Protein 1
Amino acid sequence: MSTSPAPRDTDTPLALLGGLSIREFLRDYWQQKPLLIRGAFADFETPLEADELAGLACEDGIEARLVEENGPDKAWQVSHGPFDEATFARLDAKDDSQWSLLVQAVDHYVPDVAALFEPFTFLPRWRLDDIMISYAPTGGSVGPHLDNYDVFLLQAQGQRHWQLGGMHGDDAEIIDGIDLRILKHFEVTPGEDWVLEPGDMLYVPPRLAHHGVSQSDDCMTISVGFRAPSADEVVTSYADYLGASLPESLRYRDQGMAPVANAGELDDASLERVRELLLSTLDNPTQLAQWFGRYMTQPKYLEQLAAREPALKTHELVEYLEDEGVLVRSLGSRFAFRHGENGTSTLFVDGDGILAPQPLAEALASDQRLTAVLLDYTTADLDRSAVVSLLTALINRGSLILECDLQDEEDDEE
């Protein structure tokens, strides 16, 4: 039994991409140059209001920043949440208030925001990072800046004036002392200067200078960002993963070496032996895949994954699913898979790798509705009881949720 989705149509023009096909966008724009898309989302309505965003910024555990261009202490002051009502009252009392509120990972808390990821799944799901939402009154901005990742900037309400500059390398001059990459010097590229209305969207590739300024008192912008680990993060993480599994007996060897001319010299032959040791341990496609799947599914905010209490038992899960129950992926969870042999896959979920039947791994890592059909996704080596145990473990750790539990939580909040 297979759950593989039908092949995606990559050649049909899409309003989401300004009339380009997926193939054309990836070939000509992705990670290369910006794209303005008028009416990317027709008749767009914001998935949450400004006061709801401010409410999130006041909660513990939610990453929120307040950027003030003329702060109480200095220009370009950044404050970190949680905030309180007094903070927003102070801002409202200022006549020349130029500020922006930034709230990260809103998709982890608001299902309607999380749903905005779906139109972007022409890109790998494991590349999706989070959705940040910013709010600013007229004149508010975070300055001309750079990002190290791809981002789609969707105007949710109000208007924002965007100006683009050129690409910048590591030598870009950045204002010191704040955790934003605000440029000391910004020059607008002729013709790349627009005001975006609700439903309009701007794609910005990594390292492209951009500057957005609110043109209304209700400006809200949704930033759909993508994970892009740096080389130092990749090397460090992969080395740690390998180091935990390499045997102590695997060491530098120089059997059959030639006599040395100078006992104090690090000669070429010695360096080549070290190089071969490194390459032989690093160049392992199987280990690389196992590490990368775990690395790219690590949740951004671990506290979002709440263990289920009381723990669900396997027979309770079977009864629930056979009674037309549905499982739901936690908003903060990440799923991916890599197919192996004999009908099995590694299911990567929230930083772990778990052996699973191929159709089960595909289903969990998709947007497919999760029903009792999951119990039939078995192999000769992974029978129904193994599948039930796997799903129960994912529920008890918080990666999956019973839909009825989710409904109970929503009812309690109301």
Protein 2
Amino acid sequence: MADHNPDLVEDARHELGVSVAEMREANKKWQAMIRSPRARAAASRYRSVLGAPESVVRRKVGDLECEAWLWPLPLWPTLRFEVLLAPTGAVWNEWLVRAPGAEPPPLRTLDDLTPWSCTVDEAARAFAPVRPLEGSAPTRWGLAFTAPDARGARHACVAEFSWGLLQRVAVDPAP
């Protein structure tokens, strides 16, 4: 997320009381863990780092049944880190989602699409129809859609997400 919004990451680091050195060390350990030749399966890796999930729910995605593991986040109390697992235990997806029972943000115009304001699913619902776009890395997604500005003029947009959280929106200025 620091690639897109370094100031927000810096503010979050201060809010969490973590030094730059601690943040870098945590990232170094995570990268070593996921790239190790003896790396654990993704599901057990998340359990070892995050502990037991706050909740585990059955979910149906199209015709596929899966299990969703959800963890709370100190920085974002209205979000959860979600890991979707196939019946085989393989991780299908990992990203941030709105916590059960938490109200999604009102998303009506381009002004509402600020960094870290919404998840992929929330933007997709608010500005349907959308076209999913491949991200620049495994933890990144994109959506193409049209959205109105404050005056109601519609614009073509491309939203970029990291770990499921909005990072930025590129807007075609011509309505």
Protein 3
Amino acid sequence: MVISQGKLMNIISKTNKNNRQRSRKLLTLTGITALVLTGGLAIQSANAQWYQWSRLTGIVYTQSNIPTPNANSILGFRRDALGMLTPLSTPFFPTGGAGFPNASIVGRGPFFITAFASDQEVIVNPEKTRLFAVNSGSNTIAVFDIHQDGSLSPVEGSPFPSGGVQPVSLGLAGDILTVVNQNLLPQIPSQEASDSLPNYTTFRVTPKGRLIPIPNSTASVPRGSLPTQALISPNKRLLFGMDGGTGLLRSYQILPNGRLQQSPSSPQQLPPAAFPPNPIGLTLGLQVHPRRPILYVGFTLSNQLGVYSYEPDGDLHLLRTVPNSGRAICWLVTNRAGTRLYTTNPGDNSVTVYDIGRDPSTPVEIQRVVLRGEMGTGTAQLALDSTESFLHVVSQPAISVANNRISVLRVNRYDGTVTEVPSSPQLIPSVNNSFPQGIVAN
């Protein structure tokens, strides 16, 4: 399906109109019930509840990932108190580069779901004043300033060379930005690709947002490794990565000068339990506990969650694996308190919730929710908003990219379980065979 950006936003606008009608009906029924049951006191309670809900508005960003030169963009949405997404008044912000097409990756040899083989394609700094995004199809990184109304403006000089071929993931440690260059795209010019290995490389971020390459900071990995993620430890001193194509777990120390130094046990082969018989070497998803030296790893092919401890120098030790009832566990996120861990499972379009509060080293599954929309290879990256009241999931259906979407789930503040909101999902129709990648929520 090939449509223009303008038609894309018209479709999204029509979808939003239907969602608003559903939300209004829900609010009306809720209000009537409250009045009948408790009269005037209920009105006061409803007003207080609405005041609390009104504080839960925020901004959500994803990347359109359009493969056409200079057509890639960041899509911005305002989320209201009920979780409904509405495009910003300026709905998309050009990145100055290109994404990569779905069809060029899916079905390519053993990497049959590499459309999803990366995380952290879009990130923001802790102050939520600056946004970074990959241009996977043009080997650059876009950097934006975030304004109070959610709009974005590129910093001077953006986009910047990524230091390799096909950037797919970003990690920020203070003013050090790490870029993962995957180097798997078939459409990259052969000479450029042959001269460059997949790598992790770092940049210094200036106060104005410019990216300055750090000399001798590039850590290359073998061709075909399929590095997927640049995960930064809570103390900003370690970088964790996964070679999805070979099943190797990597850890690096981030030195004060910004260079990367591989940790003693790196790279570390994943345990046999991570793969079923006749492995094809595809493992995705890394996340760190926010308060304990624990690393969680998604063992995609065996539907398990791996749990590792790590030393101050990044040395890793496998503690155990626990089952996941979803299919093809991929990307992971934890809440700030370190009591809940959420996973996406593309194989059955679901989200799994784990209790990690009682014992972070032994996650216990407490919920699995199948999201609305097309089944099959679907759920991908996920993000909690800054209040941790909503969980947002980017989905990329394998059967029809016209049904790309963002799903929004409300997080129960008492037990951390999730419920998909009535207006979800927000459709993002494909442009030139594109599928969205990455998500952040303020």
